[in-house]
Amino acid sequence: MVSYNLNSFINGYISIMRNIFLLSSIGIAAMTYSNKYKEYKKHIQILSLLITIFSIVYGVISIIDSNKYIDYIEKQEDLPEINVMMLNQWKNYIKLSWIYIILISILAVIILKRRIFI
Prior knowledge:
- By secondary structure, the chain is mostly helical.
- The protein has three helices and no strands.
- It has helices spanning about 5-35, 40-75, 80-115.
- Helix 1 runs parallel beside helix 3 (about 80-115).
- The N and C termini lie far apart (about 60 Å).
- The longest helix is centred in the last third of the chain and has 36 residues, at about 80-115.
């Protein structure tokens, strides 16, 4: 029987998602308030765009890596029933993460269109 530390995995994943929430919030907030800075408006808009893009890419990479790990764990024959149940819950977390990434992407495009390109 191989020992897997699934709690460490989910703790790491939740930490990554928390970082994505924080980064995307900073990026969106900076996009929103960039008009307040007259002299550095374009610089702040570009910086906020880069922060938001980094947040989105970081989220997509973590979701893909998490899916790979879950697929690997599911292939194990000696997996206890509790771990199977936990893996199904984690798949739901990943779906929620996709929804968040999509919403942030849409919001960033809307703000960019209204604030930067106009």
